Amino acid sequence: MTRLFVHELRAQQLLFWRSRESAFFTFLLPIIFLVLLGSVYGDEQFNGINGSTYLLAGLIGYGVVATAFAGLAITLVVRRESGVLKRVRGTPLPASVYLSAVIVSTLIVIALEVVTQLLIGTYVLDASWPQSPAAFVLVLVVGAAAFAALGLALTGLVRSADGSSAVVNAIYLPMTFISGVFFSTEGMPAFLRAIGDVLPLTYLLRLSRETFVAGDGLDMPWGSLAAIVVWGIVGFLVAVRMFKWEPREV
Fold this sequence. Notes:
Layout: H1 2-18, H2 20-41, E1 45-46, E2 49-50, H3 51-81, H4 84-89, H5 95-123, H6 133-155, H7 164-179, H8 190-196, H9 200-213, H10 222-242
Antiparallel strand pairs: 1-2
Helix pairs in contact: 1-5, 2-3, 2-5, 3-5, 3-6, 3-7, 3-9, 5-6, 6-9, 6-10, 7-9, 9-10
């Protein structure tokens, strides 16, 4: 079983990096945003945090959502509607091994992306390094797992490959703005702040930024971490019920 998993994981990595569109929008785009916005707003202050550090923490969260939620959902819907998932079910490869390899491959991409963002943010934009590295890693792992579960759940709601990008982007792009990836949400209207207060990305950003300024991981807002876990559990339960292997397009 381990050899099957490793073989499938390698195949998933090759598929990802060979897809220029996926590599650009889920891996390179957050890095490009970091360089552009950090160059412009890096010297400002957001909520008492250096602008470069604030943007670095926010765009790390953006990268997690773009890869684990949007990228994963679109990829699986396209594979489902093209018959790839149905053919996988007809092979000796266990479904659990296939999905595990897809998710772990996504986590590897996120890890590479985060390392790249940290290096660019620290050595090019003069952003701070996380003051609590262990808490930072914990937040990223929990956040990535939760958004991967939500991405799997979303595939059950998208009926066509053509509509997958539109549906996913209609959900995650507004979420990035309302949650405060690129700027502080203090100036937003009250109704937008109320919406943002329940979004999982808001909690991820809050925790991510906390690890950059707090040196003691034990002082992190554990309630925010619990909220992300709850969102992940909800996503997992919906995915178990609604995830499909056969095409749904009529």
